[in-house]
Amino acid sequence: MPWLGHAMAFRKNMFEFLRHMQAKHGDIFTVQLGGQYFTFVMDPLSFGPILKDAQRKLDFVEYAQKLVLKVFGYRSVQGDYRMIHSASTKHLMGEGLEELNKVMLDTLSLVMLGPTGPSLDTHHWREDGLFHFCYNILFKAGYLSLFGYTKDKEQDLLQAEELFLEFRKYDRLFPRFVYSLLGPREWLEVGRLQRLFHKELSVEHNLEKYGVSNWITYMLQFLREQGVSPAMQDKFNFMMLWASQGNTGPTSFWALLFLLKHPEAMRAVREEATRLLGEVRLEAKQSFKFGALHRMPVLDSVMEETLRLRASPTLLRVVNDDQILQMASGQEYLLRNGDILALFPYLSVHMDPDIHPEPTAFKYDRFLTASGSRKVDFYKAGKKIRHYTMPWGSGVSICPGRFLALNEMKLFILLMVMNFDLELVDPDTPVPPVDPQRWGFGTTQPSHEIHQEYTFRHRRSCRTTAESRQEDLNTGKEYIEPCKTEPEPEESTVL
């Protein structure tokens, strides 16, 4: 269609559209989408020159600035992109990351147990939607850890819950908002939600809170020094809330669902955690060996496999000046000034059967070697490939908060599998398909909810009779070993 080009088919289902185009046109093709030309490169062996871009002729920042102005209302200032990466290097890695890990652990405990700790009925089985359960917990824990809290924990949790409900409203509208496909009432709703978040995340409210993360504080200090108005700083906070919390909940949902659908993976994660951490008890208030998070190859493999299957970012670069792109095959193609160069690693890398045999299957040990260490050697067409997964993007557009996000999700999964008995309401329910509107927007979301049952393990972890073992075997539940009377080893780690 004139001007629109293939926009309607692309927006309806980006994955299927690009798969069809690749089958028809090969590993590089240009399509018109709403008046703009996009050149998609689908051969991962040709990604190197694009991601390195030694000549700096492919601009990520220009496109990002236009997008954040549209969806968050934030108008970028000179140097803020480099500042965000600098702040993330300083406060989301190394010692800064360890400090945030401790805060995140305490906040997860607060969100999962409440301000007064475990109640008397925590041994009862409860039912909840798994997606809502994961997204809700991760959002509230992340929000309180990064943007601070008051002295009233109960009120903090209520405020975080209300904010999550509004966040989900915005989240549901987000894909069509980016593509300008909202109806009149939806445009009004987006405006209302933006104003609400600008108010709730205002720098004025920051002054009333304790524990605002050093990461947020550092970035706001930079904006103040650049003369950015408080109103624009509020919009910056909204952008950072979205960047930090928009994907952790959905990713944790998929990881937990895959573990529930694959008991052998659940057992492997629990065995690894027990070996490294001892008995992990959510309700206790003692030390946690955060160093163990870096020595858990099984859990790392589970998370990497989950991200391979469900993370679908689009990497975009604006082409500055006409230039020649040489593919790995030796063929050369002209990239035109003003066009946009695009990579979609989910299709071209994650789902490539040459790189990942049986690409649609969940294999918890896909990223483990025979000796149990992390596997990093993957091949395409007989050549070792560097970018064998790209859930966080790559190059200049790689997610600066990836280490915090990954640790946050790993902590959540550990707390869940070590402190709760979990099962699906319908064990035979299939893994839901991806909502097609979410392709290209970070971690995908399910097309419908999946329901789980869960109960706190501290009431069920002590089994003392043979009948209890037989009961588990008869019901198909995982057998829990009887309590041991000898004291716990010194290495035992509790939360």
UniProtKB/TrEMBL annotation:
| UniProt name for this protein | Cytochrome P450 family 8 subfamily B member 1
**Which gene is transcribed and translated to give this protein?**
CYP8B1
